[in-house]
Structure formats: C-alpha cells, structure tokens
Amino acid sequence: MVFVRSVMSFPRGRSRLAVTGVLTGLLLTVPGPAARSAPAPVVPPRGSAYMGMGVLAHDGRASGPDATPAPARANQIEGVDVSSYQGNVNWTTLWSGGAKWAYTKATEGTSYTNPSFSQQYNGAYKVGMIRGAYHFATPDTAGGAAQADYFLAHGGGWSKDGKTLPGVLDIEWNPYGGSCYGKSKTSMVSWIRDFVNRYKSRTGRDAVIYTATSWWTECTGNYSGFGKTNPLWIARYASTAGTLPAGWPYHTMWQYTSSGKTVGDRDRFNGALDRLQALANG
C-alpha cells in the first residue's frame, strides 16, 4: 500500500518513470545468487604428514631425459621410508627386492605418534635391514628442543647395535599452511639448530637432515652451517640428486621417487654397505 500511494502522488506523466525507477532500485537491492568463490584449499589433518609430502607439489617430478634415475651403482644401497599410510609393511618382499635399510616415521610435532611404528620399525630389523626413525617437523607448534625430546621419547632414540641409524629431522614444506611455518629465515635456522643440538646432547649422534634444496633456500636462506656435522638426505624426483643445499659437498641419502614398487618412497644410500654400517655404528 505504501508503494501505491507513493506512485499516485507523482504528477501525471511522471508516474511511469517513477515506478520504473523504484522497481529498478528494488531490483538492484535484492540480493542475487551468491558469487562463486574459489574453493578453500584442503588442509590435511595434523599428524598426516609424511616424508616427501611436499616434493611433488612444489618441486614436481622431472620429465624427459631427466626423469628416470640411473640404475644404482654398486656403492649405492637401496632403501625405503614409510609412515602410517603404509600400515603393516611386507618387509620380506622389500628385502627380497633389494632394500637393505629403512626409515619409519615415529612422530610429528609434540602430539602425534605413528600407530604403525612398532610393526614397521621392528619388522625392518627382523628381516635384516638397518633401520632408523624420523620426525616430521612442525616448527609452528613447538620449539626444536621440545620436538627432539618428544621424538626421543617415542622411538627416535639410537643404540650402537650395528642395526640402528641416527634419527632424521624431516624439515620441508608445511602441509598445513605457509611453506616456512611463519618463521623468518633466521628463526628457522635457530629452530633447526635447537633440534639437532638437543638430539646430539642426548644421543651423542648428529641427526640426519632430510630436506629439498628449493625449500632450504626459501626458508633458511640457503644456510650452510649444518653441512660439516649433519648428514644430508636430499629429496629430488629426477635422474640425479641435483644441486645440494649450501654447506653440503655431497649427500648421504637421496629420496629419488615416490612411485617405487611395494612401497612408493624409495631411497639410495650414497655409499657401500660397509659405509651404511659405519653410519649406524657412529
């Protein structure tokens, strides 16, 4: 009724124009279908990260002549890395296929432990492999020393039995947010130092550092200070390990593919079996 009275009050000849203007205004103010926005990125649940999770997304897999790793040389020993995604692993098959060493994810941050850790860690040992444990770092959730302590309390320790490798710090792209976990390059280096220093103070061993050159360059500024103490495990899905982070003249291990047989993640130790045993013995 209010609308009709308003129209009737306009002088003759202007009512149609007024009605049109009012209707146009009403149409402009009526909300239309919601604008389509880009879907929010899917963030995996905490604890679900695994070694090399960010390699394909950020570094990709090489193509063409650079895609297929050359056959392992006599002084390169095949290995695997596993996490909860693999569940109960058929270690006998892997051993028969040439894998002689293995790393199992033990922990992440200060709240996650791998529910398959015991079967994986002990199963590798039972078939004769030299085995070790790794920790997936989340520098945005707790300090480096605190995460080293958590790792050591949940399977990341070391013993001089000739079959146990030093623990690994898996430091790579953040699967839950920004690549560098919200840290500056200086802060990231300090976090890593806190982890490896605490690990060594409690075990006597220098932790292995697993990373990719592109992440290391972006998030540490290609810091060179760990190359003289901590063995390098490089991630690159290509025919060669490629350019290494600053400070490391060579790599100790190389994760070269995520699509291997039986277990996807396959690795090579850059040395003969006696050198792998030497690393285990410290």
Describe this structure in words.
- The chain has 282 residues and is α/β, with parallel strands linked by helices.
- It has 2 domains: 1-31, no CATH class; 55-281, TIM Barrel (Alpha-Beta Barrel).
- It has 9 helices and 9 strands.
- The protein has an 8-stranded mixed β-barrel with strand order 1-2-4-5-6-7-8-9, surrounded by 5 helices.
- α6 (144-153) links the parallel β4 (130-136) and β5.
- The radius of gyration is 28 Å and the shape is globular.
- The N and C termini lie far apart (91 Å).
- InterPro entries: GH, Glyco_hydro_25, Glyco_hydro_fam25_subgr.
- Keywords: Antimicrobial, Bacteriolytic enzyme, Disulfide bond, Glycosidase, Hydrolase, Secreted.
- It catalyses: Hydrolysis of (1->4)-beta-linkages between N-acetylmuramic acid and N-acetyl-D-glucosamine residues in a peptidoglycan and between N-acetyl-D-glucosamine residues in chitodextrins.
- GO terms for molecular function: lysozyme activity.
What's the CATH architecture of the largest domain?
Alpha-Beta Barrel
Low-confidence stretches: 1-33
Rough shape? Answer: globular
Strand order of the largest sheet: 1-2-4-5-6-7-8-9
CATH superfamily of the largest domain: Glycosidases
**What's the average pLDDT?**
88
List the domain count as a whole number.
2
Distance between the termini: 91 Å
Radius of gyration: 28 Å
The CATH topology of the largest domain turns out to be TIM Barrel
Strand content: 15-25%
Q: Give the proportion of residues in helices.
A: 25-40%
Helix-strand topology string: HHHEHEEHEHEHEHEEEH
Structural class, from helix and strand content?
A: alpha/beta
The count of helical stretches stands at 9
The count of strands amounts to 9
Largest sheet: 8 strands, mixed, barrel
